[in-house]
């Protein structure tokens, strides 16, 4: 059985290949071609951690991601807050095919899915990108979204000024003094801070601003206030959003569509501001892992 570590995955995965792979996975998920139950979550109370299982079956390959979320790891333990292992199996025989580190896959597929949403829903002439956050997802989203829109200005804000300055220097971005300054006038807004209370307010948003909300997962967490949620709400999976998203559940806003439904032509393109609420689903991890494992291995 093959094993791929993070550096091997970094050598194999590119956004140029990953973004279309996420398009296909999301389309097939909405068309019912991928089997995917809701993720199972075990809370590790004494360490304030989460341990989750995310399985899926896609054609002749099936797999599962085992993922942990320990928010205290950074900066106390100097470990990533999200860590994971992904296993691939043959759907025909059950044979184990490969195991791989899942941290980088989680990072990159999340940003690639937001890039799919930006391709669909962001203004064609989008020029200003606002990034709220300065960590892993802020970095990956900046890289991925620049591949689908030609931004002239990237603004970044996060609660830690030192992190903002470092991020701005590394990613040719403009450090700003508040979330509001970052968001007002932006064409695309990425909310990538780990928060429990709303960070993005609807009064800051333009009529056609695309909001990619990736920072808050869980029924008790919000990153968008009710006014920010008053757009066309698009998700990866209706079932997942109605069970796991505090923004969707708490706001009471109806879900307009799954991304895959729009890709497949089952739902129309919204003619108003879009809120893409991303939670991450197993179909994405399986497609990304299969891409990483299969590159350079014809016939597999």
Task: Give a structural overview.
The protein is an alpha/beta fold. The protein has 2 domains: 2-105 and 283-294, ornithine cyclodeaminase, domain 1 (2-Layer Sandwich); 113-281, NAD(P)-binding Rossmann-like Domain (Rossmann fold, 3-Layer(aba) Sandwich), CATH 3.40.50. Helices cover 34% and strands 26% of the residues. It is built from 11 helices and 15 strands. The radius of gyration is 18 Å and the shape is globular. The model is unreliable at 295-300 (pLDDT under 50).
Short description:
The protein is of the alpha/beta class and 300 residues long. It has helices at residues 6-12, 15-30, 73-77, 103-121, 136-145, 161-170, 179-183, 238-244, 246-251, 259-263, 282-294; strands at residues 2-4, 34-35, 40-44, 49-58, 61-70, 82-90, 96-101, 128-132, 153-157, 174-175, 188-191, 210-213, 232-235, 255-258, 274-277. It folds into two domains: 2-105 and 283-294, ornithine cyclodeaminase, domain 1 (2-Layer Sandwich); 113-281, NAD(P)-binding Rossmann-like Domain (Rossmann fold, 3-Layer(aba) Sandwich).
């Amino acid at each position: 059985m093959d094993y791929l570590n993070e550096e091997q995955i970094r050598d194999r995965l590119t956004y140029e290949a990953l973004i279309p792979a996420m398009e296909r996975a999301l389309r097939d998920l909405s068309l019912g071609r991928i089997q995917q139950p809701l993720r199972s979550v075990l809370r590790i109370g004494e360490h304030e951690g989460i341990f989750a299982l995310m399985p899926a079956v896609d054609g002749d390959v099936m797999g599962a991601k085992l993922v942990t979320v320990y928010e205290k790891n950074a900066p106390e333990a100097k470990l990533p807050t999200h860590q994971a292992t992904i296993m691939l199996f043959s759907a025909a025989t059950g044979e184990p095919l490969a195991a791989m580190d899942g941290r980088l896959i989680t990072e990159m597929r999340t940003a690639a899915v937001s890039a799919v949403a930006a391709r669909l829903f962001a203004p064609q002439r989008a020029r200003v990108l606002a990034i709220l956050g300065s960590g892993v997802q802020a970095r990956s989203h900046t890289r991925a979204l620049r591949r689908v829109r030609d931004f002239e200005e990237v603004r970044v804000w996060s609660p830690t000024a030192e992190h903002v300055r470092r991020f701005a220097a590394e990613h040719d971005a403009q450090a700003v003094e508040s979330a509001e300054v970052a968001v007002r006038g932006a064409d695309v807004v990425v909310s990538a801070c780990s928060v429990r209370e709303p960070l993005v307010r609807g009064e800051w948003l333009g009529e056609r601003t695309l909001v990619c909300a990736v920072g808050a997962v869980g029924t008790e967490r919000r990153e968008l206030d009710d006014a920010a949620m008053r757009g066309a709400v698009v998700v990866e999976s209706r079932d997942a959003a109605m069970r796991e998203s505090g923004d969707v559940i708490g706001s009471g806003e109806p879900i307009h569509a799954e991304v895959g439904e729009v890709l497949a032509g089952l739902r129309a393109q919204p003619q108003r501001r879009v809120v893409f609420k991303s939670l991450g689903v197993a179909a994405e991890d399986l497609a990304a892992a299969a891409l990483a494992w299969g590159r350079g291995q014809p016939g597999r």
